[in-house]
Amino acid sequence: MSKQFICINCPLGCHLEVDDSDLNDIKVSGNTCPRGKIYAISEVTAPKRMVTDSVPVDGGDVLRVSVKTAAPIPKEKIFDCIAVIRTVRAKAPVHIGDVLYTDVCGTGVDIVATRNAKAI
Q: Rounded to an integer, what distance in angstroms lies between the CA atom of residue 115 and that of residue 98?
């Protein structure tokens, strides 16, 4: 079966054509660099996404800090991950990169802060 993707690994945005009729020999065309092929194969076999959200901060100079997964997680776990993030509260001070939740949904991926919050 043939599928089409636009590669998001670099600014070129190559239009990829993927033939996944044989999962042992996935054929990719249209990529101008090796990252396009890796991206296409990943999208066909095990798609992953970064998740972003925000969490409330207790005792901080801001009410909320933005957070993200430290690495992409399996696409089918996105909504479960968001449900977990909605239960998280940070305590000021918070620094960019602080781990606010470990191993979200058994993925081995942490939730990290992407904004600072000073304690008041």
A: 9
What is the CA angle 72-111-53, rounded to 5?
A: 85
| Separation between Cα atoms, residue 73 and residue 20, nearest integer Å | 22
- Structural domains of the chain ordered from first start: 2-45 (no CATH), 52-113 (3.10.530.10)
The 10 Å Cβ neighbour count of residue 7 is: 22
Structure tokens at 12: 């070129």
111-113 vs 64-69, strand pairing mode: antiparallel
The pLDDT tens digits of the residues spanning 21-80 come to: 888 899 999 999 999 999 999 999 999 999 999 999 999 999 999 999 999 999 999 999
